[in-house]
Structure formats: C-alpha cells, structure tokens
Amino acid sequence: MKTEKATFAGGCFWCMVQPFDSLEGIEAVVSGYTGGDLPNPTYEQVCTNLTSHREAVEITFQPELYPYERLLEVYWSQIDPTDAGGQFFDRGDSYKTAIYYHTEEQRIAAEKSKQQLEQSGKFTKPIATEILEAKEFYPAETYHQEYYQKNPTHYNRYATGSGRKAFIQNHWGESK
Question: Which residues does the annotation mark as catalytic?
C-alpha cells in the first residue's frame, strides 16, 4: 500500500508521538529535528535555539487508510496554535509549531485547515502555526523515540506539568 510522510512540529516531540502512534494506517512516528540547516543536529544543539531546527515528528502513513486531512485534525488538537513563542512550558524557537508540507497537495490541505481554524472562532488570538516546505528530517537520539512508552510515569508527569494536557482538555475536549 502507498505511504506518504507528514511532518509536524508541536513543541516537545515526546508529546507529539502518542496521539498518532496507534491510528489505523500509521506505519511509523519518529521524533526528530527539522527546519534548520545544520546536518545531523543533536538534542543539545537544537535546545540552544541557534540551529533553526524545531522538535518535530515525522509520520509515515497510508493515505488510503488515514488521509492527511485527518492527520491535520489530530495535529491541531494537540497544540496551542496561537502561541508564537513555543508550546506550554517549553519556550524558544525549537518548540515553535509548524506544519511541514511534502507535496503541493499537503500545502493546500494545511492552508485550508489553518483557515478553517482561524474562521472557527475557537481562538481569539491569531493562529501562529507556520506552514513551511519540508526540509531534511533528522531522527532524534534513541532515548527520545517512543518516550511515552519507555518512560510512562515521567511522560505523564511532564505532559500534565507542562500544561499541555489541561490545555487540550479545555480547548479541544477529549484528546484524540
């Protein structure tokens, strides 16, 4: 079956894996870095906010089973799209949100979904999430992969303590 890539920056990549991980048609969700020009950046380098990379997830999916438009719906419901300075507890350029499109069709779908969110009235502040052309994606270090499964106690404490879980519940309802 045909697969495509989708790349989303939504703040801490630990929190962006689980929402996509068990959806039908998702083959892989990889934590990593994208958007910058430094080849093979490390977590420590990206955290300096000097590399222009953002923490992101790269999703390999089967569009016949789970269309890109549905991935966008899940993505929006995991972030504060009005926060231009990072996400929740995590501040700085490496934690800013972005949809990285791989095809013209993805760009059009992303722009349409952003416009729909802006017009929905759900938020009073402008939508700050950027829509950018996909750049090289570099997988993060092994200890960051599937973090929510490897370290569930710390992951849940982080997702709660950062304010992400409460924001999702208050603005989007049940997390998807």
Answer: 12
pTM: 0.95
3-state helix, strand, coil in the chain (%, to 5): 40, 25, 40
Instruction: Write the CA distances from 44 to 115, 123, 172, integer angstroms.
Output: 35, 33, 32
Plot region of 97 (φ>0 → left; ψ -120 to 50 → alpha; else → beta): beta
Would you state the structure tokens that stand for residue 175, as one six-digit string? 């997390």
Tokens of 167: 């924001």
Q: What is the DSSP string of 109-155?
A: HHHHHHHHHHHHTS-SSPP--EEEE---EEEPPGGGTTHHHHSHHHH
Residues 56 and 9: beta-carbon distance below 8 Å: yes
* Per-residue tokens: 3: 């697969």
pLDDT digits 0-9 by tens, 97-142: 999 999 999 999 999 999 999 999 999 999 999 999 999 999 999 9
Contact of 123 with 82, CB cutoff 8 Å: yes
* Angstrom distance (rounded) from CA 79 to CA 117: 12
What distance in Å separates the CA atoms of residue 131 and residue 81, rounded to the nearest whole number? Answer: 12
